[in-house]
């Protein structure tokens, strides 16, 4: 039933506060994300989209409801299993990049693989390959401070891909970028999509819709609208 | 289109090519028929004249079109005028008010429908801009269209907030 679904949620709910000041950040959400889909979840700030992403990626536990990642139940996992899942099963991309300032681009990318127990040589080779994939092979030895915003986000995306995640979850990935850098990120997402990577992006930036198969509008913790676009984004022209 | 003729007279197909060059991917949807219909109307309005090119059969694509003096004036006026095309926000706003007041429809559903349309356009335009073969000059136009549509989406979000709130508060807008 969950075989071809990268992500699946049923009745997913996250509440904050108590009776008087109860906030339903995520309110009984059902979601199926097929393998290879690029899904954009849009909505105003405070609509619950970031919380939803955290629940899907095991960064937060739901108050109620269930989540499956590639058929494995996430919400009931032990802390230890959850940590391993966050490390190996999910790639995260954040608005403010979250790179280590003291480490070079390639060191940032290989860190995840080293933590997962890969040998230094293998981790370095894979990191270089990923930097090449995001078009930054010639910036491998640069510190983040020597890179533009768009380049930093591409390093962060390379890092997210490090352990071949089942799904990449991105939270406002273009939020801090100018329009040229946003184009770079959109093109990169398009390439990931063409390569079959499952991608879920929560964002306020409607330009993401250009590379999405599906756009969900969120309002008050629930889905208000679900747009599926015909065909796949990748049309083979590029 | 008149402005495209201001430089020099042209055949219909040359005019079409000029428009497509100027508009980039946005001009792709323009077909030859539309150009000739528009030229015929402009001719009736006295803004454009045409004459048959020598030795060629009398078909619209064999005629050379030029601006009349009135047409020249119109182009000059158009260039000088400070206006900017805008979606009809007032009309849409009135729809929401009327829908809520007369309980004709859920205003938030109208906003959703409008958002789907704006999102579709934004997606198409941004996809065109992603194409590496797009000329940078045409790319600037695409960027402008995307910025506009993003502004429309933001405004629709404001509409949504307004009408969701009204709904919860027992449809104050009826009064």
Structure write-up:
- The complex is a heterodimer of chains A (238) and B (175).
- Chain A is an alpha/beta fold and 238 residues long.
- Chain A has a domain at 36-49 and 83-228: P-loop containing nucleotide triphosphate hydrolases (Rossmann fold), CATH 3.40.50.
- Helices cover 30% and strands 27% of the residues of chain A.
- Chain A has six helices and ten strands, in the order βββαββαβαααβαβββ.
- Chain A has helices at residues 49-56, 79-88, 105-115, 120-133, 149-160, 179-194, and strands spanning 5-16, 23-34, 38-42, 64-69, 72-73, 90-93, 167-171, 198-203, 214-219, 222-228.
- The longest helix of chain A has 16 residues, at 179-194.
- With 175 residues, chain B is mostly helical.
- Chain B folds into two domains: 2-80, Orthogonal Bundle (Arc Repressor Mutant, subunit A), CATH 1.10.10.10; 89-174.
- Helix content of chain B is 64%, strand content 7%.
- Chain B is built from seven helices and three strands.
- Chain B has a three-stranded antiparallel β-sheet with strand order 1-3-2.
- Chain B starts with a helix and ends in a 7-residue tail after the last helix.
- The model of chain B is unreliable at 168-175 (pLDDT under 50).
Annotate the secondary structure layout:
The complex is a heterodimer of chains A (238) and B (175).
Chain A: E1 5-16, E2 23-34, E3 38-42, H1 49-56, E4 64-69, E5 72-73, H2 79-88, E6 90-93, H3 105-115, H4 120-133, H5 149-160, E7 167-171, H6 179-194, E8 198-203, E9 214-219, E10 222-228
Parallel strand pairs in A: 3-8, 3-9, 6-7, 7-8
Antiparallel strand pairs in A: 1-2, 1-4, 4-5, 9-10
Helix pairs in contact in A: 3-4, 3-5, 4-5, 5-6
Chain B: H1 2-6, E1 10-11, H2 12-23, H3 32-44, E2 48-52, E3 63-67, H4 69-80, H5 89-101, H6 107-130, H7 136-168
Antiparallel strand pairs in B: 1-3, 2-3
Helix pairs in contact in B: 2-3, 5-6, 6-7
